Q: What sequence folds into this?
């Protein structure tokens, strides 16, 4: 509790960008109610948004929850997210919410604080009414509808996340997320545009679209013809929004029609994360993926036809059941052919809830680790090769932070990390400002150069990537 008697809260999130967005929503709802956000686990209320994408993520979620309970045993403990959907965490939490019904959290927190005789005089009656309304609306929403945050969200990063859908219908044989998140639920387009406009009014110039399966956006709209391309087109028309970045994309859903529709969107960042998982058709089939290596190559070629210097990133899973040395070689070969700028690599994680857990020929952990390291080394080489080709170019960088006096750090439109000298000509720089940076060196995973502050119109120049 603060010196002025206000109740404090602490929110932490593990995992993906969707989880990060949901953390920011809960923080906004609690702040709007009258609670004070702090960055200390000893707060009166703590909220943990859990992850279950791997066994390690589940273990870490439980570990953090237990530690927070020990550190602040009298606090109201709230747990939400994928791990709390799949497992019983009531032993360590007072309020357990999975991946739906998050809008009832504030009301349940207020009820529990009142039961524990906390002084709630700092919470207005209108705030309590709004919490009750949110909870009531949440009860009316089933697993087939998107749960709108109904709050002005202030992101915790200089790039704003914007969640446009939830759930996944793919049911890949290794994945628990479809079990935790349920079926695809899409957000209404007018709600997306309204939040994006609000973010721009707050000063954000880059928005990252997030969701469990972005390419499925609109699949659940029975009476509407709405899709991801329409979302991007609508956001591209928002004045002041200079960067739109896409989250992970399913190669199976990328068509020539989709690429053609988005090709003229000047604010769309030419960075595409295509979730590959494996370059072996045999492994992809066992994974339950809906594409093969030929389709993946076609998608990469389509994107590079429109954006020749587009940055393509991907995910690769090493050691999936039955993966042979030849399967692994094919994955390495495909990665080299595509020329990814970064590969997110992780060893297969056996989850008992999935079909892959009972598949024969489970790959020994040592072999999976060796393949993972080989793929990480390849990622470093590919990234260095791509970045080295940019030396001598001028590119636009969104300032994230000042890491030393006169030295900024941020990302290019193609999502390359960059550190640069800030030439301000007597002015000031703030997170979210755009700099035109002349690239001079690539070292230790960063591009280095000298940057000059530029206006928003320059961020739309397609020759600067």
A:
């Amino acid at each position: 509790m603060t010196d002025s008697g206000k109740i404090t809260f602490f929110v932490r999130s593990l995992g993906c960008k969707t989880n990060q967005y949901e953390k920011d929503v809960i923080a906004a709802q609690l702040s709007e109610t009258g609670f004070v956000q702090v960055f200390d686990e000893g707060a009166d209320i703590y909220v943990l948004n859990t992850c279950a994408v791997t066994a390690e993520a589940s273990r870490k979620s439980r570990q953090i929850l237990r530690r927070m309970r020990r550190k602040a045993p009298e606090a109201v403990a709230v747990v939400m997210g994928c791990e709390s959907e799949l497992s019983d965490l009531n032993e360590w939490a007072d309020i357990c919410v999975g991946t739906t019904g998050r809008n009832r959290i504030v009301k349940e927190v207020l009820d529990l604080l009142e039961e524990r005789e906390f002084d709630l005089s700092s919470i207005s009656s209108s705030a309590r009414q709004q919490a009750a309304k949110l909870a009531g609306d949440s009860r009316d929403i089933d697993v087939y509808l998107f749960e709108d945050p109904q709050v002005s969200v202030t992101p915790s990063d200089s790039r704003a996340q914007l969640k446009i859908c939830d759930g996944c219908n793919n049911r890949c044989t290794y994945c628990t997320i479809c079990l935790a998140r349920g079926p695809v639920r899409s957000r209404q387009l007018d709600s997306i545009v309204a939040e994006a406009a609000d973010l721009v009014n707050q000063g954000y110039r880059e928005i990252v679209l997030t969701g469990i399966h972005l390419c499925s956006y609109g699949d659940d709209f029975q009476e509407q013809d709405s899709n991801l391309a329409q979302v991007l087109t609508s956001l591209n028309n928002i004045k002041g929004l200079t960067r739109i970045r896409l989250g992970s994309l399913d190669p199976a859903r990328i068509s020539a029609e989709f690429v053609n529709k988005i090709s003229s969107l000047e604010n769309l960042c030419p960075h595409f994360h295509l979730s590959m998982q494996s370059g072996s058709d045999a492994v992809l089939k066992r994974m339950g993926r809906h594409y093969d290596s030929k389709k993946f190559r076609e998608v990469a070629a389509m994107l590079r036809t429109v954006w020749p210097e587009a940055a393509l990133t991907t995910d690769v899973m090493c050691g999936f059941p039955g993966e042979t040395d030849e399967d692994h070689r094919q994955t390495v070969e495909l990665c080299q052919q595509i020329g990814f700028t970064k590969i997110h690599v992780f060893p297969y994680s056996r989850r008992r809830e999935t079909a892959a857990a009972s598949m024969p020929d489970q790959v020994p952990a040592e072999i999976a680790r060796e393949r993972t390291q080989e793929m990480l080394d390849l990622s470093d080489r590919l990234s260095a090769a791509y970045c080295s080709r940019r030396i001598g170019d001028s590119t636009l960088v969104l300032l994230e932070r000042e890491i030393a006096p006169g030295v900024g750090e941020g990302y290019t439109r193609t999502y390359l990390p960059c550190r640069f000298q800030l030439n301000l000509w007597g002015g000031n720089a703030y997170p979210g400002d755009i700099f035109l940076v002349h690239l001079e060196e690539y070292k230790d995973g960063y591009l280095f150069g000298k940057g000059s502050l530029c206006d928003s119109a320059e961020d739309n120049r397609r020759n600067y990537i």
Notes: Residues 365-388 form the longest helix (24 residues). The longest strand covers residues 394-404. Residues 160-388 form a domain with the pyruvate-formate lyase- activating enzyme fold (CATH 3.80.30.20).
